[in-house]
């Protein structure tokens, strides 16, 4: 009985194996495996091509980055040379005239009485401005003027928005003096 059970069990197992995985002939199984292998090879080749394309793009991007870095370095050198030329040619008188004409006479300073003094490329701003925003803008414009080494801010914010009188008691709005 024990032997009969084994034989029946083995036959059932064999039948189940045939039913589940062995319904195909050995040739069909081989052909399916070869097709699966070929598909996998093609996918591998495609993935390798994508990796190689990505590497090539990365090399090109790295070359572009290096060129951009060289251009940036060259531009920085050019800018430094230009800055040095400005420093050499910017006399106190030139800075005074440029600041008076191009910077502080702008319409945004029409309610301000700003005087400019320049000595050894150090600009001193004195006078009255209506508010902190105007004061900050005047200082920023002067700081950004090529040739200016430093800005001394002695501007006063007037409470009423009126221009401050000078030492003679006259309104000095719009006057600029070279110290």
Would you write up a description of this structure?
The chain has 4 helices and 3 strands, in the order H-H-H-E-E-H-E. The chain is an alpha+beta fold. It has 2 domains: 25-89; 92-157, Histidine-containing Protein, Chain: A. The protein has a 3-stranded mixed sheet. Strand 2 (122-129), helix 4 and strand 3 (150-157) form a beta-alpha-beta unit. The protein is elongated, with a radius of gyration of 42 Å.
List the topology elements:
Layout: H1 2-20, H2 26-89, H3 92-103, E1 113-119, E2 122-129, H4 132-143, E3 150-157
Name the features.
three-stranded mixed β-sheet, disordered C terminus, 179 residues, 60% helix, Histidine-containing Protein, Chain: A
- The number of distinct helices, counting runs of at least 4 residues, comes to 4
The rounded distance between the terminal residues' Cα atoms is 125 Å
Number of DSSP strands? 3
Strand order of the largest sheet: 1-2-3
Shape: elongated
- Overall pLDDT score: 81
The largest sheet is:
3 strands, mixed
Instruction: Report the CATH C-level class of the largest domain.
Output: Alpha Beta
Helix content: 55-70%
Describe the structure concisely for a colleague.
With 179 residues, the chain is α+β, with helices and mostly antiparallel strands.
